[in-house]
């Protein structure tokens, strides 16, 4: 049963979001410092005069060209696998190849670099190459990551998507609901509605968060369907202070997807903090090639998805091992991308059972009506911290979800306030004398 949304909070809105260093360069004929009366923002890349915000159908995803392999500098498999996973999303491919405005850029922006790297991948030379345009921008995409050590591919993917989003955002001077106005967020962005219901006064507190991916705890689950069901189940929140009646109660909390994405990015939390040790969860998780999400979040439009690519982590720990990608052509044939080597994947039921990140594309993309409307004035909007990772004072939290194995899960507000500066993409396993199951948390600080 879906709880009703009551718009009782103040709708806060900032006039301009923070920007990072990902912007296209104007033509040399543009006057430096020209900002239409606004303070000039300084960055390595300035904005383009014009960027297409809607891909055309002049050139489409071509199943006959699988794509070339990418050379590994020694520890760059996390970048290579991420690029291949993105390049095998048809809508992402079409966006890049049809964005002709970026051909006019004089200094390479991040979108230009991705576009040219994809074009090189699609040549028929048959020779693997180094994606230097992306390697050279790593310090701009994610300053904390390195070309010389094993890094987290999902973290790189998160920063790469954010960087491309900011490039479009700056170029089009968008400042109103920016998460929904760039091509990148039209593909990956979606809205989560978090409802907390007070059993005493029946007041329902509703908060909206913008996301580009879901992180799923898999410690107690052997299938993606079970992990999704656990993510969207209703939980109990202990010692919750109701904003309406002021009482401390055991409230119910549930997350719902308000606007389904066109490209669904799911991270399977393969790394768990067990006491003080970070260990990898190596058990197989059944990942279906077709996903129907209507049963997980009600919507007025169908939400059917097709698996198009996945990132696989091989090895014992997050700091050791190797990343590969499995990507699909539009006719449904899967290929494995292992750095320089590209080979056809043998079809088998457990092909994706060790996946770390899976990417689904909506089979009937569109702009569905939100299940709770567009959030009229009075609703509470909470920006996902993944959208502003460089903001000062960020405590490192992206999402906090309580998912328990027992039938009556409960989370205290004290547990929800946990912070860490040393963990990322980890699932916390609390002792059995504290809870029966696992408390899942996502960290981003290194």
TrEMBL record:
One GO location term (cellular component): cytosol
InterPro entries in the cross-refs: Papain-like_cys_pep_sf, Peptidase_C19, Peptidase_C19_UCH, USP, USP_CS
UniProt catalytic activity: Thiol-dependent hydrolysis of ester, thioester, amide, peptide and isopeptide bonds formed by the C-terminal Gly of ubiquitin (a 76-residue protein attached to proteins as an intracellular targeting signal)
Residues annotated as domain USP: 68-363
Subcellular location: Nucleus, Nucleolus
Domain of life: Eukaryota
UniProt keyword list: Hydrolase, Protease, Thiol protease, Ubl conjugation pathway
GO molecular function: cysteine-type deubiquitinase activity
Region Disordered: start-end pairs: 364-416
EC id: 3.4.19.12
Any GO BP annotation: regulation of apoptotic process
Family (UniProt): Belongs to the peptidase C19 family.
Name of the protein described by the UniProt record: Ubiquitin carboxyl-terminal hydrolase 36
């Amino acid at each position: 049963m879906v709880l009703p949304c009551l718009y009782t909070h103040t709708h806060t809105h900032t006039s301009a979001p923070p920007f990072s260093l990902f912007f296209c360069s104007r033509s040399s004929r543009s006057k430096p410092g020209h900002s239409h009366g606004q303070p000039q923002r300084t960055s390595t890349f300035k904005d383009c005069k014009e960027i297409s915000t809607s891909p055309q159908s002049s050139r489409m995803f071509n199943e006959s060209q699988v794509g070339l392999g990418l050379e590994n500098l020694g520890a760059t498999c996390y970048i290579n696998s991420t690029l291949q996973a993105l390049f095998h999303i048809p809508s992402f491919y079409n966006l890049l190849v049809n964005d002709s405005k970026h051909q006019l850029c004089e200094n390479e922006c991040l979108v230009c670099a991705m576009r040219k790297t994809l074009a090189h991948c699609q040549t028929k030379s048959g020779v693997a190459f180094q994606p230097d345009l992306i390697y050279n921008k790593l310090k701009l995409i994610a300053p904390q990551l390195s070309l010389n050590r094993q890094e987290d591919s999902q973290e790189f993917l998160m920063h790469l998507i954010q960087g491309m989003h900011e490039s479009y955002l700056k170029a089009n001077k968008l400042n109103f609901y920016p998460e929904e106005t760039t091509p990148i967020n039209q593909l990956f962005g979606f809205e989560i509605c978090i409802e907390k219901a007070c059993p005493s006064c029946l007041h329902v507190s509703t908060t909206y968060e913008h996301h580009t991916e879901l992180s799923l705890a898999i410690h107690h689950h052997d299938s993606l369907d079970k992990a999704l069901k656990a993510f969207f189940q209703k939980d109990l929140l202990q010692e919750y202070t109701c904003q309406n009646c002021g009482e401390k109660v055991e409230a119910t909390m549930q997350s719902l997807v308000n606007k389904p994405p066109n490209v669904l990015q799911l991270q399977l939390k393969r790394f768990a903090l067990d006491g003080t040790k970070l260990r990898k969860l190596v058990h197989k998780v059944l990942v279906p090639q077709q996903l129907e999400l209507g049963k997980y979040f009600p919507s007025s439009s169908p939400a059917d998805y097709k698996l198009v690519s996945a990132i696989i982590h091989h090895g014992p720990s997050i700091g050791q091992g190797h990343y590969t990608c499995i990507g699909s052509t539009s006719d449904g044939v899967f290929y494995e991308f292992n750095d320089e080597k590209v080979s056809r994947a043998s079809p088998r039921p457990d092909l994706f059972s060790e996946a770390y990140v899976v990417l689904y594309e909506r089979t009937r993309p569109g702009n569905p009506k939100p299940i709770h409307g567009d959030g009229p004035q009075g609703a509470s909007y909470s920006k996902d911290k993944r959208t502003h990772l460089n903001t000062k004072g960020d405590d490192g939290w992206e999402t906090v979800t309580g998912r328990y194995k027992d039938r009556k899960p409960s989370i205290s507000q004290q547990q929800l306030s946990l912070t860490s500066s040393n963990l990322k993409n980890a699932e916390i396993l609390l002792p059995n004398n504290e809870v029966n199951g696992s408390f899942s948390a996502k960290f981003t600080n290194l």
